[in-house]
Write a structure and sequence with these properties.
The chain has 23 helices and two strands. The chain is an all-alpha fold. It has a two-stranded antiparallel ribbon. α4 packs across α6. The protein is globular and about 65 Å long. The chain starts with a helix and ends with a helix.
Length: 483
């Protein structure tokens, strides 16, 4: 392990992250909300900590290896989650414990959107903005942003990119140089954010709400500047703008890159994962709307269509915005929505879940085993886009799925041991490991009522979901630490 290089990179990234305390500080000055001091103090503390890590090893020029990349990603997300809690724990409004501050920060950075805060409407504007900003930064991964910057100061980035990028195919580069790839992704991400904010503003939001909600929409995060989330605006146009940008953000960003480079949209429908994703969303929307209409949950059919489309896309893409308390919907709908969140968005998108490509491969593998029962000697390749998928990829997907389910069960049992009922424990772990946010039962609205131990378990679930399980678990194996 090249410890000097690891500490150097973490120190640099911590110094970069300290700069994210300045925008909320500026917001505090603009609105004169009394929340300036926590952000100024946090900026100073994080900058000094970063310098202390960086200075002793600043001349180190060792190349980063793959295992160094894994360690840096996990270290930085852990350090970042705790660092992001600093202004929240120093602030008088909200007055929260460090555990609650860390939960809120980790939830923001992993784009989970689970909150412990109540009375968000009355918080200082700087805090409300900061929560949205955390999600925006976490959306594409601060590591990917850093990949664009670090090569300029002599740090190679492919190892970090492989560990951070969502999805089973880790080595795909969009451009020959990884820094160019990261820049391309961020230009697309920034353009989508600007377009989303402008659309929200034109639909009736003020600039503060439009920018804040564009941050959490493009990041598929789910934080809002109001307790009532998107439902606060009671505006179908705003809801549908949100739906459109959630669908765009849940599609593989490599597809957006291709669309930008070729000035064509045809490749979207040629990509099997995108077709599966849109198909799943269409089926879910149809089932939700029909069930709401048949059960006559709303007095007017228009409301069933509006809320049905919005909640299906919001939960299905793992955003977690709400216009209605979907946990009170009839028959199987709340559990169905939670189940679809397990699938989540496409690989290399800002969505959570196990990713559509993995779900697609699991279904195809299941079908292959059925065919093999009928024709034991047959060679049945699994194909995606007409090309056979290597068995090593299939094995990796099955390994991921088995580990995912085992960890899910273990964390659910741990939560039940803290005194939570089965529905709350199941939905809390489901909502955090998929980076969804809202659950059912006692965590339908917020996570304030659960114990500190349960919150730390759920923070671990958020990290597992965001770092795609193995990136985090590899650090817990003895083989990783052997020379």
């Amino acid at each position: 392990m090249h410890w000097a290089s690891v500490l150097r990179v973490v120190g640099l990234l911590l110094m970069i992250f300290s700069g994210t305390m300045l925008p909320p500080a500026i917001i505090s000055l603009i609105y004169d909300d009394g929340g300036l001091l926590p952000f100024v103090v946090s900026f100073g503390v994080l900058l000094v900590l970063g310098l202390l890590l960086w200075l002793p090893v600043c001349r180190s020029r060792q190349d980063l290896r793959t295992r160094d990349g894994f360690l840096i990603v996990v270290l930085f997300w852990t350090v970042l989650g705790l660092s992001g809690a600093l202004p929240l724990s120093l602030s008088q409004a909200p007055a929260v414990s460090f555990t609650d501050a860390a939960f809120e920060s980790m939830s923001g950075l992993t784009t989970t959107g689970a909150t412990v805060l109540v009375g968000i409407d009355d918080l200082p504007e700087s805090i409300r903005f900061y929560r949205q900003q955390l999600q925006w930064l976490g959306g594409m991964g601060i590591i990917v942003l850093a990949v664009a910057i670090l090569p300029m100061i002599g740090v190679g980035g492919m190892q970090l990119y492989r560990a951070e990028t969502p999805g089973p195919v880790k080595d795909t580069k969009l451009t020959p140089r990884i820094a160019e790839t990261a820049k391309a992704l961020w230009y697309i991400y920034l353009s989508l954010t600007v377009a989303c904010a402008s659309a929200y503003w034109l639909a009736g939001m003020n600039w503060f709400d439009a920018i804040g909600h564009s941050f959490s929409t493009v990041a598929i995060g789910g934080f809002s500047t109001y307790d009532a989330s998107i439902g606060h605006f009671d505006n179908p146009v705003i809801s549908m703008i949100c739906v459109v940008f959630l669908l765009i953000a849940a599609i593989n960003f490599a597809m957006h890159f291709m669309a930008w480079r070729t000035r064509s949209l045809t490749h979207y429908l040629k990509e099997p994962e995108v077709r599966w994703f849109l198909g799943i969303m269409a089926i879910l929307i149809t089932v939700v709307i029909i069930t709401l209409l048949v059960q006559q949950h709303y007095s007017h059919w228009g409301n069933a269509v509006h809320h049905g489309i919005f909640q299906a896309v919001s939960i299905g893409t793992t955003a977690g915005f709400t216009t209605q308390n979907f946990d009170g919907w009839p028959v199987f709908l709340p559990v169905l929505l939670l189940m679809v969140a397990f699938i989540g968005g496409c690989a290399m998108s800002t969505g959570g879940g196990i990713k559509v490509i993995r779900f697609m491969l699991l279904i195809k593998q299941g079908y292959r085993e059925v065919i093999r029962l009928i024709h034991p000697q047959a060679l049945v390749p699994i194909k995606v886009g007409g090309k056979p998928v290597p068995d090593r990829v299939i094995d990796a997907v099955w390994g991921f799925f088995a580990t995912y389910i085992a960890l899910f069960a273990l964390m659910m049992l741990t939560l039940m041991a803290t005194g939570l009922d089965q529905v709350t424990a199941f939905s809390a772990v489901a909502a955090t490991i998929t980076n969804l946010g809202p659950g059912l039962g006692a965590v339908a609205e917020n996570y304030a009522a659960i114990s500190d131990l349960a919150k730390w378990v759920l923070m671990f679930a958020m990290l597992l979901g965001r770092l795609e399980v193995f990136t985090l678990l590899v650090l817990l194996t003895p083989a990783f630490w052997r020379h």
